[in-house]
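To fix ideas, we close by showing one paired sequence and structure record:
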Amino acid sequence: MSATSSEPREQRKEIHEVVGVFDTLDTVQSAIDDLLSDGFDRSEISLLGEDDAVRARNASGRVIDLEDDDRAPRLPYIDPESLNEGKASIIAVLFYVGAFVGAGVLTAASGVFANPIVGGALGGGLAGLVGVVISRYIHRRQRGWLEAQLKRGGLVLWARVWNPEREREAITVMERNGGHHVHVHNVTA
């Protein structure tokens, strides 16, 4: 017997979500953009989680088995612009720190002011390259997540809704953007 089923009915809270499955990243991104334009908050939107977590939760891992699973691993929606800004920030911060450290090390070692410029350029360049490697790793993880989801049957998108009007809006948006298996399901919290 689960913990939620042993609680009195009045203590359990049902939350409604609209769920849909999409065949491409472009169609799910288009649906998300439309949901956000229609007033949905990013915190109300989620996607199926990382492949390892999905396999741990469900042996088959098929999205059809996971779309109505309250405990399916989820990822919050992060827009592509924010991801790109984050990757650029990693590179910039590492470059700056590398340049500062490189200049400081050469100044301390030689006491000559010409060397800090060279040290800063070398340190910044090396640290910036580390940032590029990290950025590429993030990109590979994103690509791996996408490929794994598509192999499982598609990209699952959930949108939390608070009333029947929002349910209809989310269903319309998902279907208009190529979602299939679009429906409302209840999550017991």
Observations:
- The first strand starts at residue 14 and ends at 22.
- The helical segments are 3-6, 25-37, 51-57, 63-66, 80-110, 114-152, 164-176.
- The radius of gyration is 23 Å.
- Residues 17 and 160 are 4 Å apart (CA to CA).
